[in-house]
Structure formats: structure tokens, C-alpha cells
Design goal:
The protein has helices at 12-26, 50-54, 66-78, 97-104, 107-110, 140-144, 157-169, 218-231, 249-259, 274-285, 310-313, 317-328; strands spanning 7-11, 30-34, 59-61, 82-86, 120-125, 150-152, 174-179, 186-189, 202-205, 210-214, 236-240, 243-245, 262-269, 295-299. A 7-stranded mixed sheet has the order 3-2-4-5-7-6-12, sandwiched between helices. It has a 5-stranded mixed sheet with strand order 9-11-10-13-14, with helices on both faces. By secondary structure, it is α/β, with parallel strands linked by helices. The relative contact order is 0.12.
Length: 330
């Protein structure tokens, strides 16, 4: 086993690479599979160097067949392996959707708990990179709606490293959404200190006037919003959900009971998005604490636009600040 090292200023993509390397090195039952994950190292180079170091039987280049990739991973998991499969882009996951929701998610319940499927499905997701059609989707709520799946998304390199470790060690299937526009953002990563349980939210900025809840690519945007708001004398608290299913409603409730206002931010369309469930549940739990309705900021209920228009589609500083102003105006 390789010596544990503390890394600093590691990009999010590199953190996932190092996490996969550690898992492959530690457990011979861990496999990495996907389109171009081997010799190429992935289109975002997240798996760069892994096949060279661990061989083609551990890091496997698959055919361009997402349903086959996930189906094969299910079979391997039934035989005791822990496959980590990559869906090359978010919009490519739908050919595998049937395998994921009718087989991967259901086997534990179908077998009355006797069969576990420790499969991690990695999905680079979201916009902001100027990609073509089917390369910038945010389908996380489709998977969060399916019982039997865990759905998570890191916002920084440290979480990416440790959440991948925890996902691989989970006996239940995990859909691991990687915010592709944050792949090159760097942060300090301590590979010796687990930051916390996989499905707990974390306050990344304390505040008193309003709570911003986000995950994945929108956490950094919320930090920028809080900086601007601070210049105007407003104190915003930021909660990074980290896990979309299960959701840490307790952490959200604790924050909202303090600030009495909540704005939920995600890239996915607002219509039937994860923010809707958060708004409904927090309204139930915090009705007598809220001083304003829960507001949501997200994408529009429309197909993802061409690259030249995506900045008008995605939530930005002004749209989130507008929601903050509307909430504080009550």
C-alpha cells in the first residue's frame, strides 16, 4: 500500500484521480470502467495514469454502450467486486437509466437485504464549459427520486477526494455527480483526515440574515454572492449540501431557524428540481420561524441552450442576489 501523503492546492479532478488511485491500491476488488478511461485517461483526464499503473484488468476501456457498462458493473458487483464506472458526460447517462433504476437501485430490496451492489456511477455534470448538446445537463433530481440510490456531489477538491473514498466503500449504489466546471478549481486536500460522514451537509460560511443552500458547482457562486452581500452589510450563511439523497434536512433546519430566510440554488431547472423538495420540507419544519417564503434559483424549464446562450440560462451572481433582495424585502 502506498504511503499516505497530505496534498495541498489540488484541483478537484486531481483529487478524484488520487482517490481512485488510493482505492485501487488498497482493495484489489475495486475496478474502474468506462469509455476512454484507460489509455486516454478520460476526456477530462480524471483517470489519467491509472491504467498504466494498475493494468487493463483493473482500469477497463469499455465500448460506447452505457447500458452495457452499468449492466456489466452490476454483474461484477454480484461477484464481489466494487466497480466505479464513468459516464463520460451527463447527457449520456440515459441509455443506462433503465439499468440504474430498475436493477441497480432495486436489487437490495428485491433480495430482502441479502444482495448488495456496491457500484459507484461517476457522472461529470452541469454547464459552464461551452460544450455542445447533451454535454451540460443536471439530471440529479431524476436519480434522487429513485429509492435505493444515494446521490452526492462534491463542491471542492477535499470533498471530492473523501466522498469518493466513502462512495466506493458504501455497500449501496452511489451516483457521484462531479461538477465539471469546477474540475480545475484548487483547494487544500488532507488525505489523512476524513472531513465528515458522506451524507451530512456542512456550513461553509456562517451568517445571520439569510441561508443560501447549494451543492456542487453552485457553492462557489454562493460564496461570491455572500461576498457582495457583505459589502452591503448583509450576513449570509452558506450551507453545502454535499448529498442530494439522502438530504441533511436537520442541518438546513438548524440554519434556517437561525437566519429565518432561505434561498436554494442549483443549476438544474427549478421546475420539479431538488429545491422544490427542500422548500416544501423546510416550510413544514420551520413554518413559525420563516419570515419570508423559501425562494429557489436555478435553470429554466427548457432544453439546455447552445454554448453561446448558456450564461443566460445558468444561475449567476445577479439572479441569486435578486432572490436575496426579494427574501430580505419581506
Amino acid at each position: 500500500m502506498a504511503e499516505t501523503v497530505t496534498f495541498k492546492n489540488m484541483a478537484l479532478a486531481k483529487a478524484i484521480n488520487e482517490s481512485l488511485r488510493r482505492a485501487l491500491d488498497t482493495d484489489p476488488k475495486v475496478l474502474v470502467m468506462g469509455e476512454d478511461v484507460g489509455k486516454l485517461g478520460g476526456v477530462f483526464r480524471v483517470t489519467d495514469g491509472l491504467q498504466k499503473d494498475f493494468g487493463e484488468s483493473r482500469v477497463i476501456d469499455t465500448p460506447l454502450a452505457e447500458s452495457g457498462i452499468v449492466g456489466t458493473a452490476i454483474g461484477l458487483a454480484l461477484r464481489g467486486y466494487r466497480p466505479v464506472v464513468e459516464i463520460q458526460f451527463d447527457g449520456f447517462v440515459f441509455p443506462a437509466y433503465d439499468q440504474i433504476v430498475t436493477q441497480l437501485a432495486k436489487m437490495h430490496a428485491r433480495s430482502l437485504g441479502k444482495v448488495k451492489l456496491p457500484v459507484v456511477v461517476r457522472i461529470p455534470y452541469g454547464g459552464g464549459i461551452g460544450a455542445v448538446e447533451h454535454h451540460s445537463e443536471s439530471p440529479e433530481s431524476l436519480f434522487a427520486h429513485v429509492a435505493g440510490l444515494k446521490v452526492v456531489s462534491p463542491s471542492n477538491a477535499s470533498d471530492a477526494y473523501w466522498m469518493m473514498q466513502q462512495a466506493i466503500q458504501s455497500d449501496d449504489p452511489v451516483i457521484f455527480f462531479e461538477p465539471k466546471r469546477r474540475y480545475w478549481d484548487k483547494a487544500e486536500v488532507n488525505t489523512e483526515a476524513i472531513p465528515g460522514p458522506l451524507h451530512t451537509a456542512r456550513v461553509v460560511r456562517e451568517g445571520t440574515d439569510l441561508t443560501l443552500v447549494a451543492y456542487g458547482p453552485m457553492v462557489k457562486l454562493c460564496q461570491e454572492v455572500a461576498d457582495v452581500a457583505a459589502e452591503e452589510g448583509r450576513s449570509l450563511e452558506i450551507l453545502d449540501l454535499r448529498s442530494i439523497s439522502p438530504l441533511d434536512f436537520g442541518a438546513i433546519q438548524t440554519s434556517v431557524e437561525k437566519t429565518r430566510r432561505l434561498v436554494v440554488v442549483h443549476e438544474a431547472p427549478v421546475f420539479f428540481g431538488s429545491g422544490a423538495e427542500i422548500a416544501a420540507r423546510i416550510t413544514e419544519r420551520c413554518f413559525y420561524h420563516l419570515e419570508a417564503p423559501v425562494l429557489r434559483v436555478g435553470g429554466y424549464h427548457a432544453p439546455y441552450p447552445p454554448a453561446r446562450l448558456e450564461e443566460s440560462y445558468l444561475p449567476d451572481l445577479d439572479r441569486v442576489l435578486d432572490a436575496v433582495d426579494r427574501s430580505l424585502a419581506y
